[in-house]
Every structure is written in C-alpha cells, then in structure tokens.
Amino acid sequence: PWLNLAALGGLAAERRPAVDPRELRPRVVHFGLGAFHRAHQAVYTEHAAARSGEPWGIAAVAPRSVDAVTALRAQDCLYSLTERRPAGTVTRAVGSVVEALGLGPDTARVDALLASPDVTVLTLTITEKGYHRRPDTGRLDLTAPGIAADLAACGSSSGGSGDAGSTVTVIGRIAAGLAARMRSGGAPLTVVSCDNMAANGAALETVVRGFVAASSWPDRQAVLDWMTDSVAFPATVVDRIVPATTEADRAAAHTALGVRDRMPVVGEPYRSWVLEDSFAGPRPRWELDGALFVPDVVPYQLTKLRMLNGSHSALAYLGVAAGCTTIADTMAAGWGERLVEALCAEVAPTLPPGGPDPAAYAGDLVERFANPGMRHLLRQIGCDGSLKVPERWLDALRSLRAAAASAPVLELALAAWANATRPAADGGQLFGTTDPAATELASCWGRLPEGPEGEDAKGEDSKAGDSKATVRRLLRVLGAADLAEDGTLVTAVAARLPAL
Ligand code: NAD
C-alpha cells in the first residue's frame, strides 16, 4: 500500500498530518517542488493552517520534473517528513500541499491560480540558477536560452494583450502570471523568494521586472506600474539542512509509516525562517510556527553567512586535513566544537545589531552540527571555496582588521583553505575538493615540491618566503588584493601552513 488519503486512517495519530488537506484551498502557489520546500515552507504553512484554523493550502508547481508531479498526485499530494534527531528519527505525513502541477503541462491552471484573488502569496525554491541573473549586474540575462525562448513566445502569442504561452522558465511564468493578474482585477500579491541568496527579494523583483520590460506586451508599462503598487518582494532568510533523499531514506520511511512513499524528505530538527515584514496582502500566520517577521533581514543573513556558513567552511578545510569525513565527525573529535565557538566569538563583533543573539546562535550551531544523523560531507562543503570564502570570511576579517582586532581563528581557517588548494598528483586538489578556479589556485603553489629531500634542501627562510608568496597569490585569486598586501595577515597565515 502507498501513502494517500485513504491510508491516513491506518496511520498512528502521531504520523498523521497536522491538517486534513481536504479542509484547505490553494491560497499559496509555490514554484520548485524540491526537498527543501517540502521540509520547510510546507511545514510552516501546515502548522499555520492548523493553529489559525484558516484554510491555507499550497498549489506546488514543479518547474521541470513531471515525475515529481505524477508521484505526488498518486499520493493525493501527501508525503512524509523524517526528522533526524540526535536520539533517533521521527516520521510523519505532511498535509499542506493540495495540488501538484507541472510548469509546462499545466500552464493554464498555473495562470488561473496566479490571477485568482484567492491566491495572495507566491513562494519559490528554484535554486540560484533558476533566476537567470547576469553575474556582473544581477539583472535578467536576456540571452539565457530559456529566457530568450520565453520572450520570443510572448512576442508571437496571439491576442492583443498577449501572454507568454507555455514558458519554460519560472521567471517567464511569474511575469506572465502577474500580467494576467493585473488584467483580471489586480489583487495585491506577495512573492517570497526562499532561495539562499543575499537580498533574495530584490534579486527576484529585478529579474521579473526585467522580463516584463523586455516583453512585447502592449501593456507592459501598466504591468510594471501596477507591480510597484501591488506586488511585494520581501527578503527572507531560510534555514534547515535538508539533504537529497536517498533510497535508504525511502526504505526507512516505508518501515516507519507502514505504507510506501514515493516522495519522502528528511531534515534536521532545527528550522528557522526570517521574513521582511512587507507583505502586500493576506498571508498564512507562519509566526504561529516560529517564523520571525522583521523590518530588516540583513543582520540575520550576515549572522547565518558568517557564523553558520563560516564555521562550516572552517570545519571543512581543517576536517579534511585531520582525516574527518563529516561535520559531525569534527564535533565528535572535540576540536570542532571549540572551533565553532571560537570562530563565532571572533566574528560576533562584526555583525550589525538587530539580529539573533550571537551566543545563543553559536550554541544552536554546536548542537546542530553534532547531530550524528546528519551526514554532511566536509568535501562537499569545501567545494567551490574560491566563491564561498570571500563572503563567508573575508568581509568579517576586513572589519576586524579595520578595528585593529586580532583574528586568529579566521587566519587559521584561511591557512586550512590554502592548504586544501594544494594540487594533488592526480591533477585535482589535495583532499578531493573541486573549484571552478582550481587551475589558477594550483598555479599559486608554483612548482610541485620534488619530495622530502628537495624540500629539506631549502633554507628555512626561503621556504617561509615561498609560503608567503603563495598565500599572497591565493588571496588575489579570491579577489582580495587588499588583504594580499597586508603583511601581518600574510605572515600569520603562512606561519600556520607547516603544522597543517
Ligand atoms: P532540490 O534539488 O530538491 O530541488 C530543486 C528545485 O529547483 C526543483 O524543484 C527543480 O526543478 C528546481 N530547479 C532547479 N534548477 C532550476 C532552474 N534552472 N529553473 C527553475 N527551477 C529549477 O533542492 P532543494 O534542496 O529543494 O533546494 C532548493 C533551494 O532551496 C536551494 O537552491 C537553496 O536556495 C534553498 N535551500 C535549500 C536548503 C537545503 O538544505 N536543501 C537549505 C536552505 C535553502
């Protein structure tokens, strides 16, 4: 037997959804039927509906995977969530999704929902790629193949006002949906990006407006003006570790539920959602499930970036050198916990006021990272370091140096990252991480050492000079020419390398 409405009666009470989906209506449209949405916003919405008694259901749109739509429909849109707690796992069905749609095949239904005054919130988890931003300007990349095709389709559509026909991009569909909404009455709408990007609301607004402006709709200026007045794009900070679902997760969900589930998700027990409090109309009362509505999310975003992501990267580069495999390994080894606490204490003074309490945040991190049920791989976290390190560590480092404060933990972390960029004999990086700038990083090390004797033959001074030059070159690859010129920093980082 499979999980579906008929099977709910047979589930133990604690495994049933918090709401009966038959009592909900689609009032939120979501794009991106991935694991994260099902373990995050869908759970907040379910609890908000249960606790407020308001019928907020989700119509979830899969941008690309028709299989996900078929699988979810076969289960009456029910799926299970397994929380991996340190003491064991807890599995239950989630009931907030009431409709599953494919972006291509169900265009008419998606548009009808986006135009309906009953729908007042649209959410997205489509990964950063789904925004089609130009890396240099952050504006919509009009030359991206999907965007160009969608713009061409809306130009050639029949009918005076035009629509975007059957788009292939989420951005094109949202633009077309907003235009349809304006033309059919123009009820206010709030569009909530839940993807991991700084200023995600503004980023989304820029690309959607970019699409409308580049369309050939005769009323495009009216759509843009209406958006200014009636469509809000609040910024958000989302947090919950949700790994991709594995076959083993599917089998475990089956055992726990007693019925099979094609779409299970697993996540850590911790979750948080911080939203800019600027909604254009009604919304689910997510605060009833702990969501925070704040005037400015930036302090929260920087805390997450510098403390959570910053610690993750530091643990990753030190951990691979120490022979650990996962974040939980580094915490079990004891030094991980000390490192997280020390790094958080070091960067806390660089954070703007108005965010979470740094000590409490660090305490939560230690608990989350120590969870042995979450096998978060160090090598995966350590990949793409040249893109991650600048925003996770370097802004904090700059602000500490400007305040003449010492930064021993960030220096150690930088040395560990530098160490992990060493070229390996197989042409990759020493510990198996990958990086788009791998070749450039490898060239910072100059000629590969010729073996222990060759190394020993060099004088100590000349070896130290070599390491400093390497650190300087590596910092330049990070785009940090200012830090590369900082002799004290470069000496401190280079001095850590021999021990690593
Ligand atoms: P996933 O792989 O399970 O799902 C990705 C979703 O994005 C799918 O619905 C897919 O169709 C869609 N997508 C991918 N490329 C796209 C494109 N070019 N255009 C339109 N849609 C596209 O991933 P997930 O775990 O659900 O994560 C999705 C996003 O959620 C992440 O990129 C991140 O921004 C955010 N997030 C995830 C986590 C996590 O732990 N998984 C935590 C915080 C935030």
Question: In a nutshell, what does this entry contain?
Answer:
By secondary structure, the protein is of the alpha/beta class. Helix content is 48%, strand content 12%.
Outline the structure in words:
The chain has 500 residues and is of the alpha/beta class. The protein has two domains: 290 residues, Rossmann fold; 199 residues, Orthogonal Bundle (N-(1-d-carboxylethyl)-l-norvaline Dehydrogenase, domain 2), CATH 1.10.1040. 48% of the residues lie in helices and 12% in strands. It has 22 helices and twelve strands. Helix 5 crosses helix 7 and helix 7 crosses helix 8. The longest helix is centred in the middle third of the chain and has 24 residues. About 2% of the residues have low confidence. Bound molecules: nicotinamide-adenine-dinucleotide. The site of nicotinamide-adenine-dinucleotide (NAD) has 22 residues, from helix 2.
List keywords for this structure.
500 residues; alpha/beta; Rossmann fold; N-(1-d-carboxylethyl)-l-norvaline Dehydrogenase, domain 2; 2 domains; 6-stranded parallel β-sheet; 3-stranded mixed β-sheet; 22 helices; 12 strands; globular; binds nicotinamide-adenine-dinucleotide
